[in-house]
Amino acid sequence: MKIFKTVLFILVPLIATAQTVDYNKIVIPERITAVTFDERLVQLAWKNHPSNKIVQQNVEIAKKERNLARWSWLDNIYAVGNLNEFTIEPNSNDRSTFYPRYNFGVRFSLGTFVATPLETKIANDKSVNAVHMVNQQKLVIREEVLVSLEKLKEAYKIIKLRQFVKEEFYQMYKEAEKKFQTNEVNLERLRASLQEYYSRSEDLITAQSTFNQEKINLEAIIGIKLEDVEGYSGFLAKLDEESKQDF
Question: What start and end residues bound the annotated signal peptide (predicted)?
Answer without folding.
Answer: 1-18
